[in-house]
Each structure stands twice: as C-alpha cells, then as structure tokens.
Amino acid sequence: MSCCDAPNLMPIEDALQHMLSGIKPIQQSVELKLQDAIGFVLAEDLLSPINVPPFDNSAMDGYAIRIADLEKSDTLPLAGKSFAGQPFEGNWPADTCIRIMTGAKIPAGCDAVIMQEQTETTDSGIRFTNQKVKHNNNIRPVGDDIQKGDVALAKGARLTSRDLPMIASLGISHIKVLRKPKVAFFSTGDELKPLGQPLEEGQIYDSNRYGIKPLIEKFGCEAIDLGIIPDNPETLKATFERAQSEADVVVTSGGVSVGEADYTKDILDEIGQIGFWKLAIKPGKPFAFGQLDNAWFCGLPGNPVSAFITLYVLVQPLLAKLGGHTEWKPQPFIPAITKNGFKKSPGRTDYQRGIYTIEDGQFYVETTGNQSSGAFRSMSLANCFVVLEQNRGRVEAGETVQVQMFSSSLY
Ligand code: AMP
Ligand code: MG
C-alpha cells in the first residue's frame, strides 16, 4: 500500500500552507501594565531606556581595593563602607580598603573587589590572603546585562514569566502589546448534553468544549464559548452569524464529516467560502476551513481526540500567525525506540498518543492503549505524540519512531 491508495486526502503540510497563506497578523495594540502583559505578544521592539546594571557594582561581599595599594602591602586599613543602596561617598585615602556588599556601587578608583573569604581582620586592618588579584575582579560593569538602546526583546515575542523580570529591570511599567485574537467556539450535535444533567437514551456529554477553551486560551487568544448548538439549521445559522460578529475566528466541533449535516454546508456556503477537506491525518480526517464574511472558520471533527488534535496541529499555527506571535514554532521531533508495536496503515500521518521515558540517555516510547478517535483517555494518559509518517505501515517493537513532546499548552 502507498499514499496513493488514499489519493483524495490532503497532506497536513498542504493544509497548513493553505490556511496560513491568507492570514494577516492583527495590528491593533493596547498598552498594559507589565504585570498584566504575560501571554500577550509584543507590538514593537522593546528598546532599553537605561543600562542594566545602571552602575558598576560588586558581585561579592568583600572589600573594594586598588591593586597598586595591595602591591605595597597585604594589609589595608578600612576607610569606609559601600552597601547596596548606600554608596561610599567622600574621599578614599590611599593605602586603605572599603567594605563592600553584593550589589553595592563600586567606589571611584577601585580596581577589584576581594571576597571576604580571602581576608582576615587584624589590628592593623584587613589582611588579604591572596594578593594575586586581576583587574575588575568581582566587578559587574555598567550595562553588563543590557545596554541603553539595545533591543531587549523583539516585536512578535510572546511574553513569558522569563521576560517580565528582565523588562522590569529596565524600569518599564507599561508595555504595548497586540490585542489577542478572539475565537468563538461551539459544539454541534443533537446528542450532546451539558454537564450537570443526566443523560437520556442516545445522549453523551459535550466534552469537546472542555479541551477547546483552555487550548484557545493557552494559544494566547480570547475564548468566547457559545455553548452547544443542536443540529437545527435556523439555530446554527444564527449562531454562526453571532460568532462571526464577535470574533476573528469561529471554531466548531462536529458536523463536518461526510454525509452528515448537509445544512451546515449550505449555511456555510451562504455566509462564506468554506472548503470541506479530507486530511491525511489520523485522527482528524474531516476538517473544514475557510472564510466567513467577517471571520475565519475552522470546523473540527466531532470525535473528541480528532477535535483536540486538529486544533493543536492545524489551528494553533493559524492563531499564532493571526496573533502576531512570529516566534511560534511546533515542538521538535525526537527519535525514540518503541517498547511495543503500533498499528498503522499507510495513507495518513498518525498522531498516536504515547508515553516517553528516558533510560540511560535513550528515548523510549510506549502506547497509551486504545487509540480510537473517540477514546480521550489516550490523550489524558499521554506525555507525547507518536508521529508516524504518512507512508509508514505497522511499527514493530524496537523500531525507531518520532515523538513530539507536548508543549506547555497541553498542561
Ligand atoms: P460528528 O463529527 O458530528 O459526526 O461527530 C462525530 C462523533 O463525535 C460522534 O460520535 C459524536 O457524538 C461525537 N461528538 C461530536 N461532538 C462532540 C462533543 N462536543 N463532545 C463529545 N463528543 C462529540
Ligand atoms: Mg454531529
């Protein structure tokens, strides 16, 4: 068998290329307090208004000295002190030293700081047990971390807990970020019941929205939950209209597979240009993408694992581009040895759910069990995807496969 046994399936790369080709990043920016800006995307290059550190300062608790003084004597009387926030002021007499603490300003003329562990206190002053001192020893120079005018962080970066302290060190209290993309989403299906109500014959709980909402938010977007919409043309149409008036992107789950919900197709034809695709991805074959009058549309398959994976693999890059998050990249692939066989037929790229371990520096992976597109426990138990190439067939234990670790959005 080869991929040509499934000639009508669109490869994931082609789908992604098609989806991303029309997307233009959001331009509108807002100014936020630094502490509220986490998860937002920087709207412009962030230039440092100051040097960090702003002055030469000590990296150690110890003594500020002049090397020439120390070459004359190993013992120097104390002339004063420089503490963090309380610099030494006044004249510094020759042949003396100054007590200095970590972060304190280096007194003018100082060549080096000697850590207190290399000294002892005597009646005639501080004795330095190691006289071989290098220039600028233990001195953190002005601008050592960031220089005034440097691009501290480039436009398109999404702000993390690692960025905020760096920006705060520049004294920047407010920051210009892009507004987040708004994503309206709803589940479709007469069989779906909200949580908190007992199931009647033939019904299931609507579980998809419980994965879609947190993912959208973790992708850096605002999520607008429009609930469960029954398979009813009028209600569906009204919901699509409402969704596209409120959001940049409309995400639905269910109702896009072959043969079902022809009226969904009719509605979408009426209010936009939508392609109903069959993708070479498993799970997640039925997928719809296109443009409504005022929003992009992504129609996820109804099966819970399919909905979740297509949102992660296909919609996430679209939202990153729309949100101006230019640094976004998918997680890298890592080769791992399989601990068990994996069922696979050529024709589609599989995103099976696995658990990787590292033993003696080698990656191994095993399956989470039942890989049905409706069996969400396979996702819940997993810590990686086992990405099996489109043309690959069954995988035996001991073969090498590519695993993709989960990004932080799956935690
Ligand atoms: P559909 O794409 O509408 O044909 O749905 C495919 C399968 O996914 C069916 O078994 C549906 O019952 C199920 N399904 C659809 N939407 C949801 C949902 N929101 N939560 C859980 N299962 C769903
Ligand atoms: Mg349905």
From TrEMBL:
Organism phylogeny: Bacteria, Pseudomonadati, Pseudomonadota, Gammaproteobacteria, Vibrionales
UniProt family annotation: Belongs to the MoeA family.
UniProt cross-references to Gene3D superfamilies, sorted A to Z: MoaB/Mog-like domain, MoeA, C-terminal, domain IV, Molybdopterin biosynthesis moea protein, domain 2, Molybdopterin biosynthesis moea protein, domain 3
Species, as recorded: Vibrio marisflavi CECT 7928
Cofactors demanded by this protein: Mg(2+)
Keywords of the record: Magnesium, Metal-binding, Molybdenum, Molybdenum cofactor biosynthesis, Transferase
Pathway field: Cofactor biosynthesis; molybdopterin biosynthesis
Gene: moeA
Reaction it catalyzes: adenylyl-molybdopterin + molybdate = Mo-molybdopterin + AMP + H(+)
Molecular function, one GO term: molybdopterin molybdotransferase activity
Name listed for the protein in its UniProt record: Molybdopterin molybdenumtransferase
EC numbers for this chain: 2.10.1.1
